[in-house]
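Good morning C.,

I know you're traveling, so I'll keep this short. The sequence:
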Amino acid sequence: MLTHLPAKRTTVFGSFRSARTAVFGFKNGENAINCNSYCCACIQAAAVEKEDTMDFATKEIFKRYASIMVGRPISPVFLNILVTSVCDMRCTHCFFTEELDDRPRKKLQMKADEIGKISETLGGNLGVLVLAGGEPFTRKDLPEIVKAFYENNKLDSVYLMSNGQIHQRIFPDVTRIMDECPKLNVTVALGIDGVKSAHEKIRRKEGSWDKAIHTARTLQDMKREQYPQLDIQTCTCVMHSNEDTIFDWYDFLKYDLKPDKVNINYIRPPSADPNELNFDHQRYAELSHMILEDTKNAALKNNYGGKSGIFKAAVDIYMHDIIAKTKEENKAQLKCYAGSAGAVIYDTGALSSCENKSDVLNLRDYEWNFQAAWNTDLMKTRRKEAANGCFCTHESNCYYPSLPFNVGHLVKIKKLERDIRKAAKQGGFAVAREIALKA
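The tokens, ready to paste straight into the viewer:
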């Protein structure tokens, strides 16, 4: 039976007294976690007591807190799989250029049944699955991959990263995923890197901007007409080629395209064109602040669907300021849980904590048994390395899985979540009022 931990083991919770109020809604001196040492049993009890009202993501995070406190590995809540190295573009900012369309590598590409075995042995429920590449929609079996995690891991959300070019695959595959996984929150994250001229310079493909915008608008129609759990997100990497027009692009997103979620990424090395890494950091910081304020004031919808959607959006929005501060101060702003709360699997089966560090091992050598590989000494060593002051600007590998496990940040994220909910509610009333006045 888990007992109260000594004081030195409680430091992972930092200001947990504040966190319990922010997350569970308890006040000081109230109910299950009225305990100065914040033992594992109390945390679990609080989670059970509030389980009926807690969203999926928060529930899964707190299930893992007790294990983290006693140093046990947890199954990831955020899994990033680069399902293919095949791509129809050669973007100037791509970090994966050398691997693209490598024929010997393609022969090693994981099959759907092998990914299915990974899902079966993942070891727990999964909050977020990111399927990237390459271009994921070049795979004919993409719906089968999604369905495996939906059925085996109670998958809450899948993000399908795409350049939005292959219409003949995107629309039928999204339709099939929505039909076969009716309770799944599906986000198609379209990589659109600015206004037309900047985007096509970066993507090196004439006509690609119009195709991507067409994809976004068609998916928006699908959402309105049939699939309310479908979200359309734009992902824009801030870099040298788009920094001069980045605010014009944001205005287009805000007033014209109006995606469900606006996301920006901080370009990271290696880059196919190294000059893309040379841009004004202050523009990224200013843009991230604009997105935050517009979201809090309901000038921008900027959230995902589902019960966990606003929490996930709050993590997204909150992390941009932390990334900017990391770059400015050149030091870690959080404890990194890459290789613990998050994992990366490459198309060949290679497993890593993140895309910034080398592969740790290959799941092929463990007969696709994820837990067998996850609990090796090799992965334990990588986890320690990541947690020992490692830092970067990588959103999906570091900040997204790690921030909820840093209590000081979690308290602020939950506050932002409440602000967004309040703004969305007020925004909804304002829209309804405007419609009524026009009637």
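Safe travels,
E.
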